[in-house]
Design brief:
alpha/beta, 6-stranded mixed β-sheet, two-stranded antiparallel ribbon, globular
Length: about 575
């Protein structure tokens, strides 16, 4: 197969199939890219051609057979997003043509399937991993898959199929009499999309060309640019045959992309982007904990590696690239283990608490490095996680410090752990020191007793504190805990003001006192939503009887009191504050 400018049909039609090499990303095009392709074809005049970019391929020498027919297998090094999307559109054109009762159309459909989609059991395009099966079964063969089992890339494939189906249905609805002609013309436009077909003989040549290709489509992410750059430097630095070193980098990045998929399909990792993870890793291995430098990590990395290469130390350059790649893979794997950890042990318990408080982002570099170092020493890992929860509760929740408070220090600490200059005792001492510096005991006591606690602290955080107090009361009463944190944090439970927020039923001489006491921690408790709706605004004398039947100890304990006012609120606040000082003790 010759290289050069050819129409798409000359690439796809014939005795050849395409596979995506394992080091490539999964399907990543989204609505913007689908819109571009659709509009390019829709507004293209019949008979004219449209340049569709470069397709970079490597001939594998392998064959696929169906009966007596053989197909040469090509790896699609660059161009999988465009080709995948185009075949999805072809399939949807076929689906619409299949609804037309016309013998000529039926013959056209048979040729379309053989030429663009599959010949018997041999499919024209094989995607990566599980995406390959999904592409064959859902996109090509129209089998259904439930949404809840789909990965992000599979969901994008499904949404692309729906997108083009919707566009075609809109055209059909607007002009049903000419819809058949529209479909035929659209298919001809796809046939004639112009591409530059470039075939390489080995991975080394592919790397060299891929680094300089700048095709239209979804821009490469920084992680993909990092991979491309590192492979290019391997190609340049290896004095003999770079194949083995290239394979090492390829396989590492293949695993990195799989780990990333595992991270982003988990609830804990839904907001983690690949650039964030790479930046966290860079903080620990290169930036010496410097947060500002970490935001320009790719420029820094390129500059450093190029300087080594230009100094003439090719072997040192090669070793650095391979070492950096392995270190990056280890970081992604550690984070994947952290966000997917589901064992019901002490580590799992404290991990859940940290993620529940929703302020873990600044600690990710430290979490990654301590996990790598101590994940097999559960007592040590548990203590580190416990201290991170204490820091979060004292500094961010009760102290109301900015979300990035202490981030630079945590970054520098992560760097020291990575460089093996800090051991467990030093790490825990530093964490205690940081927490005490930002929110010492005196500050913590003051902030937990503020008059406007209810409006100052987030509703979810108050629930968290009161749930921990509920656990404490259960332990004191030697009662089993019959409810979990997830339930308390759901909409089924609310924060109740024991002395109701509405002062209308109070005598005038108590209204000013009520104003200063109603939002204090001592006046807050947990209640089921239904309970709070029914009884929340009632006088304490009425509530007192209802508290006795509550499933929550933080309500039930109130039934022992005969009245409720300033004195009782301050006493209860003192009790909760004493508990908090012990529970979140540095």
């Amino acid at each position: 197969m010759e290289k050069g400018l050819v129409p798409l049909k000359d690439l796809v039609i014939g005795d050849r199939t395409f596979e995506i090499p394992i080091y490539q990303r999964n399907y990543s095009w989204e609505k913007n890219q689908w819109e571009d392709l659709w509009n390019d074809l829709l507004y293209l005049d019949v008979g004219k051609r449209h340049y569709f970019g470069t397709l970079l391929m490597k001939e594998t020498g392998r064959l696929k057979r169906s009966g007596l027919k053989s197909f040469g297998v090509y790896e699609l090094i660059d161009g999988q997003q465009r080709l995948s999307t185009t075949l999805i559109l072809v399939k949807e054109i076929m689906a619409q043509l299949g609804k037309i009762d016309d013998e000529n159309v039926r013959a056209e459909l048979i040729d379309l399937e053989k030429n663009y989609l599959k010949y018997r059991e041999v499919y024209k395009l094989e995607l990566l991993g599980d995406d390959s099966e999904f592409f064959r079964r859902y996109v090509i063969d129209d089998m259904e898959y439930p949404d809840e089992v789909l990965t992000p890339s599979q969901r994008r494939l499904k949404e692309a199929k729906i997108f083009f189906r919707t566009k075609l249905e809109e055209i059909k609805k607007a002009d049903p009499n000419h819809f058949r002609d529209f479909l035929i013309q659209l298919k001809e436009k796809i046939d004639n999309l112009e591409i530059i077909r470039y075939i390489v003989g080995n991975d080394s040549d592919a790397v060299l060309i891929f680094e300089t290709v700048n095709d239209r489509g979804k821009l490469l992410s920084r992680l993909e640019k990092t991979k491309s750059f590192l492979m290019h430097l391997v190609y340049l630095s290896e004095p003999t045959d770079p194949a083995d070193s290239l394979r090492q980098v390829n396989e590492s990045f293949s695993r990195i992309f799989r780990y990333l998929e595992g991270i982003q399909t988990n609830e804990r990792g839904r907001n983690l982007h690949e650039e964030d993870i790479q930046r966290y890793h860079f903080v620990t291995c290169e930036a010496e904990g410097d947060r500002d430098t970490s935001y320009t990590y790719l420029d820094f990395l390129k500059g450093k590696i190029r300087d080594i290469y230009r100094s003439g130390e090719q072997q040192k350059c090669l070793e650095y690239v391979l070492e950096y790649t392995k270190s990056l893979e280890k970081a992604f794997f550690a984070l994947k283990e952290i966000v997917t950890y589901d064992l019901n042990d002490e580590v799992g318990t404290w991990l859940k608490k940290s993620f529940t408080l929703e302020r873990v982002a600044g600690f990710f570099p430290l979490l990654m490095e301590t996990w790598i170092k101590f994940k097999n020493e559960k007592e040590k890992m548990t203590e580190i996680l416990r201290l991170l929860e204490i820091f979060t509760l004292r500094v961010y929740v009760v102290g109301r410090r900015r979300a990035d408070t202490g981030e630079s220090r945590a970054y520098r600490l992560a760097y020291k752990v990575h460089r093996h200059s800090l051991e467990f005792d030093e790490i825990t001492q530093d964490l205690k020191y940081f927490a005490n510096e930002y929110e010492n005991n005196e500050d913590f006591q003051r902030d937990i007793k503020v008059e406007n606690f209810y409006s100052k602290i987030g509703n979810r955080d108050i629930k968290y504190i009161l749930f921990e107090y509920e656990k404490y009361l259960r332990e004191q009463a030697r009662e089993p805990l019959e409810i979990d944190l997830d339930s308390i944090l759901s909409e089924e439970f609310q924060i109740e003001h024991i002395w109701p927020q509405n002062p209308e039923q109070l005598p005038d001489n108590l209204k000013e006192i009520h104003e200063h006491c109603r939002d204090r921690l001592g006046n807050l408790t947990l209640a089921s939503k239904s309970w709070n709706v029914k009884w929340g605004n009632c006088r304490f004398e009425i509530k007192r009887e209802k508290y006795q039947d509550s499933v929550l100890r933080v309500q039930k304990e109130l039934s022992n009191l005969k009245q409720w006012g300033k004195e009782q609120i301050e006493k209860r606040e003192e009790q909760i504050a004493k508990f908090a000082m012990e529970r979140w003790k540095i």
